[in-house]
Amino acid sequence: xxxxxxxxxxxxxxxxxxxxxxxxxxxxxxxxxxxxxxxxxxxxxxxxxxxxxxxxxxxxxxxxxxxxxxxxxxxxxxxxxxxxxxxxxxxxxxxxxxxxxxxxxxxxxxxxxxxxxxxxxxxxxxxxxxxxxxxxxxxxxxxxxxxxxxxxxxxxxxxxxxxxxxxxxxxxxxxxxxxxxxxxxxxxxxxxxxxxxxxxxxxxxxxxxxxxxxxxxxxxxxxxxxxxxxxxxxxxxxxxxxxxxxxxxxxxxxxxxxxxxxxxxxxxxxxxxxxxxxxxxxxxxxxxxxxxxxxxxxxxxxxxxxxxxxxxxxxxxxxxxxxxxxxxxxxxxxxxxxxxxxxxxxxxxxxxxxxxxxxxxxxxxxxxxxxxxxxxxxxxxxxxxxxxxxxxxxxxxxxxxxxxxxxxxxxxxxxxxxxxxxxxxxxxxxxxxxxxxxxxxxxxxxxxxxxxxxxxxxxxxxxxxxxxxxxxxxxxxxxxxxxxxxxxxxxxxxxxxxxxxxxxxxxxxxxxxxxxxxxxxxxxxxxxxxxxxxxxxxxxxxxxxxxxxxxxxxxxxxxxxxxxxxxxxxxxxxxxxxxxxxxxxxxxxxxxxxxxxxxxxxxxxxxxxxxxxxxxxxxxxxxxxxxxxxxxxxxxxxxxxxxxxxxxxxxxxxxxxxxxxxxxxxxxxxxxxxxxxxxxxxxxxxxxxxxxxxxxxxxxxxxxxxxxxxxxxxxxxxxxxxxxxxxxxxxxxxxxxxxxxxxxxxxxxxxxxxxxxxxxxxxxxxxxxxxxxxxxxxxxxxxxxxxxxxxxxxxxxxxxxxxxxxxxxxxxxxxxxxxxxxxxxxxxxxxxxxxxxxxxxxxxxxxxxxxxxxxxxxxxxxxxxxxxxxxxxxxxxxxxxxxxxxxxxxxxxxxxxxxxxxxxxxxxxxxxxxxxxxxxxxxxxxxxxxxxxxxxxxxxxxxxxxxxxxxxxxxxxxxxxxxxxxxxxxxxxxxxxxxxxxxxxxxxxxxxxxxxxxxxxxxxxxxxxxxxxxxxxxxxxxxxxxxxxxxxxxxxxxxxxxxxxxxxxxxxxxxxxxxxxxxxxxxxxxxxxxxxxxxxxxxxxxxxxxxxxxxxxxxxxx
Length: 1102
Hints:
5-stranded mixed sheet, alpha+beta, 37 helices, 32 strands, Deoxyribonuclease I, Chain A, 1102 residues, 43% helix
C-alpha cells in the first residue's frame, strides 16, 4: 500500500510486507521502486536478517534486500535497535526496516518505540529532523571580518608591560592589551540567541532574494505581462545564484577535508546545507537520588565529579600511604651547571610554535592563536622576552593554572552518568604556545637519551598505531606456524589521565637526570590547577584538580607517556608487551598452557604491583584475554586473575581499531568494517542526488576521506586474511565508485577503476603495506625492523606453506619483481638538531632581477663574471644532478678535477642535486683551503636547505649536518644559484658528467623517492593489466590509465561516463528484466553505444 503525504513536500509512504517463506524476485523489488513517485519511504516487515541493520547474521533474504538497497541507490534509516520480539524464544530481532530516497535522508530522524502495543513488532518512528531553532553560546570573534591592520597597531605589547616585578601582572597586562585591541578591531557575534542559517548563504543570495520579493510585490499589485516576465527573471536569477553559491561553498569545504574527518562531521555539514542543525540539549544528570536539569546545576555536578576523580581521596588507602611517604622527600631540580635545554628561547622557536598551532577554542583569557599570529614584530619580541622571564625566573603566572573544561560524552555511554564524560581542558593559548616550545625541548631530550621504550608508539615521530598491530599479528603468525598457543591480555587502565600521579611524573624526570628550568617549569605547570565547567553559556564554580594531567594541554600527553611507559620495564623477559599511550597489551606463547598461565600471571601481578605503587588502577572487568590458537584438539582456555577476579576470555577483541579473532581470520573485522562503510555510503547517495554536491571530483574526494580511509586503516594487518574474506569489501568499493561516477550497474569493475582512477583494493593493500614497511625502515630503533625471520623459522614457513607469512615477509614477496627488492632505506633522524639550535642557511642569487625566458644567455654570463670578480678569493665548485630514462646521476666540478656518480634509478632529480652538494662538501673536508663557493642550478634544493623542519629531505639533513661541522672547523662556505643551460662553463660541465656518470654510488634511498617509485611501479603494472583487456568497451576510448577531468554538471558527466564505458540503460537494462537485448532493425545486430554513434548508417543523419 502506498499513499502520498504532504509534509513540507509531497512524500510517498509505502507499507511493505514480505512473507518469510515466499520467494520474492529481485526484479519485483526493483519494479516497486520504479512505480513509486520520488521522494518515497518504504516501511514494513521485510523478514530479512542482515548485520547491516543489527542482526547477528545474514540470510538469503537479507542479502537480497542489501542488493535492493545498493542497486537502487537507497538509504537505510535503521540503526542497530531491535524491532521484533519473538515470544516463543523470548529473543529480539531486527526485521522491520525503514528505507528512503537519498533526498530525504538528511531530513529525517529514525527511532524505535519502546511499547509493543499488544503486538510483536515495535513501532518505527520516522520524523523530520527539525533544527533546534536557537542556541545561546558565549560571544565569539568573527575573524573573517577582522581589521588586522588596526589590530596590529592597537595590540602593541610594550616593554613596560612585561617588565613589572610580578610575572602574573605582566601576563595580565599583555592579555588586556591584546583583548582590548581585539574588541576594537574584530567584531563579535551577537550575544543574543543564535539563529541558524545555511552555510552557503551570502550577500549575493540575500540581494537576489530581495530583488525577487520586490518583483513579486510589483507583479502582485500590477499583474501585467511585463511585470510577470520581470518576476520570472528575478526568480530564475535568484535560483541560479543560490545554486552557484551552494556549489562553490561545498567545493571550498571539500578542498579542505582530509582522511581525519569523520562521517559525523560530514553529515553535520550536509544537514547544515539543508538547513538542519543538531539541537543542543542539556543532559539530565542522575547522582544517587538527586536529578539535575538546570544548566548551572549540571555544570557544578560535572565539575564535582571531575574533581573527585583526581582528588587525593580517590586513591586507595595503601597508595595514599605510599604517596604521602614519597612526597615528604622534595625533588631538588637545581642545575649545578648550564645545560643546553635550559637556555633562553629564540625567536625561530616562537615562530615555529605559532605555525604548528591549530586554531582551537580560546582559554579563560579569550586570546586565540589567530590574534598571536597577527602581532607585529616588536610585540612578538616583547612576548618572547616575557616567556623567557617565566622560563629563567622559574615563576608561573597564576592565570595559567586555570582551565575551562568542556564535558564530552564518551561514545555509547549513558548521558545521565557524570562519570561518562571526558573533561577536555581549554587553557590559555599564550600558555600553550610556551608549552609547545618546552615540549619540543623535552621530547628531543627524551628521544636522544632513549628514555622512552621503543615499544611505546603513542604520539612519537615516525610511529603510529600500526606498529602495535603489526607486532601483535607477527607474534600470532609465528606462534601458529610453530603450532603453539599465544595468549594475549588487553588491559583497561581506569581514568588514566585524570589519576596520573604528578609527583611520580616529576620523580621519573628526576631519575632521567633533568635539572634546571625545564623540570621546574613542568613542576609549576602541574601544581595548583583549577578548572570551571562550561555548559553552553553557563559556568560552574571553581574546582581543584589535585592530580592528573589536564586533557587538552600540549604537555599532557608527553608527561603521561613519561610516567606510564615505565610499566613496560617490569615485564618478565618471556612476556612481550606494547603500549600506545595507555592501551597496554601483553602476550606470551608456548606449547604448554600451564607454563603460559604461570608466566602471564606473574607478569600481571607485577603490573598490578607497579600500578598500586604509582596510583593507577587496572580494571579487571574491562580487561580482556584472547587465546590465539589453531589447534583442533580440545584444550582449556587460560585462567588469569587480577586481584582474585578472573580476566574474561573472549573469542575476539577490538585492539586499536582492528578486531583480532582467535584464529586470526579477520572475518569479524571485515564484517564490522563493511557494516560501517555501508552506512557511510549514505553520504554519497544523498550528495549524488543534489544539484550542488554531486560532481564526480567532490564525491571521489569524500569517498577517499570518509570510506576508503577507513578501509585502508590497518589493511597491512587484516590484508593477510583469505581472499574470500577480503572480497566482501570489494562490493563496497565498487558500489561507491558507481555512485561517484554515475556508471550503470552492469559496468565492468575494470572500467570503474579506470574512469575514476582508483586502484583495486588488493593493489591498494599492497601499496600501503609496502610503504609502511619502507617507512618503518627509515625510523631509527623502530621495533618492526627487528621482526625479520631467523633462518629456522623461515624454513618452518617453507615447510608449512598453508600458514600465512608475517608482514615483513609478505612485503618482500610483493616487491620481488620490482627494482625495490633488497634496497636499503635511508634513516630519517628527526632529532639531528636540537630545537634551540636549528641550522641557519642562506644563499646568493645574483640573477634575481632577471627572468630567464626573456633574458639572453650572454647577459647571464656577464652577470656571472661580475659575480666571480666579487668572490674571486673563493674556490668555485659546480654541482648538478640529472635524471633520464633508466639513468640517474650527479656531478661535481672542482677547479682541477671532476667527480661523477650514478645513483639508483628510483632516485629523483631533486635527490641527485642534493647528493651532488653532499659529495662536494665531503671532498672539501680534507682541503687546506677555507673559502669555497658552491654553485647549483637547483633552486628547490637551496630553498629546502634554507627552510629546516622535521620533514626535511634526509640528504638535505646530511648536508646541513656536514655544513655545521665544516663551519666549526673554520671553513667559510657560500652557496649560490646559477641558471642552467645559459653557457656558464662550470655548470655545463657538471651537467654533462652527471648525464654520463658510470661509477655507481652505493647509498641508502630516501623514503620519499621509494614512495614515488613504488606508486609508479604499481601504475605500470595496472597499465599492463589494462592493456590485456582489449575487448573492454572503455579501452578503445581510454587506452592509457590516467585521470580525466570531470564535468561540473552531474547529469552531463554521468551521461558521458556511461557512453565512454559503453553500458547505458538502453543497451543493458535487459539484463535485469530477463529480456532479449535490443537489436538494430537496420543492421540486425545488438545495439551498442559504438554501433549507435559510429557504425549504424541509420543514425548518421542525426
